[in-house]
Specification:
11 strands, alpha/beta, 50% helix, 334 residues, globular, 5-stranded mixed β-sheet
Length: 334
Amino acid sequence: MTGLKTTLIASAALVGMVAAEVHAATEWNVSLWGKRRAFTENVEKLAELVEAKTNGEFKLKISYGGLSKSRENLDGIAIGAFEMAQFCSFYHTDKNPTITVTELPFSKDVSLARVTEIYTEVFKHPVVKKDLARWNATLLMPTPLPQYNIVSKTDGLNSLEDFDGLRVRGPGGIMGVLGKLGAVKTGVPFSEVRQSMDSGVIDAASFAPHAHLATGSYKVGKWATTNLNLGSANCPVVVNTDALDMLSPEHKEALLGSVDEALAFYVENYEQNTTAKFEAAKKEVGLNEITFTADQTTKLNELSESVRQEWIKKYAGKFDSQDLFDYTANLFAK
């Protein structure tokens, strides 16, 4: 009986170890930053759907800043520090040059639903997949954002020449154009944008509506653009490729099969709530709205074309940048 008892105890311990391993394999750590906001609702909804579809057997444990700094999320994915993360490509263009093609100024006002489709297709391009594979990363889904617009604390913007010397926090494509007008790209952490504007470290911030709301930039601003239309940031959600491959077929299907629904929820939530909320907030604080004229827009478009050509030339020796650009431009043109 003693031997049998010992065997049973050993078996129970083994079962416990196996159960623990299964649990560990089906609870993923997800690295985000800031706080829950419209920008993270695609991940929040995905976590909700995955848990429901697997009856709680597969969970996405979301952390806002507790796992990594935002600019180190891709590095964390590479070493397997966590299984899923969100990052913005302009945080480190040298680490993910291919997806910066979507941040180029295509000078078009594109719906969120269409941005979702475009980014999803770009993520499937062989050159892009190879680029992210260097980080053991698989692009899971985009975080579609509307066209960025500027909020500034300076006295006003009467002409494009007034961009000269303006210190702006913004992504590469937009700043590539504004830089040709003399604007100065100035990097400050997302969480310090309002403080930096208030203290004079930066003069302006270029964001989508949710980020202006989250940072409170509009509360210290004096004016805001309405039709900049020079693009937005690409902030994808990626997963560690090894972790994805190790999922059971059922859990993998629950994850991948929930992406479209999570994105549809995100788009609807953003359009119905965030954009409208920002428009109301601007009116409440009395921001002066700057709408570019047709002549000014033409000038911005001319500068945009030069920025696009510079991007192609810059990366021509690293990958087929012309092919990737043409592929992306055709998607925006449809």
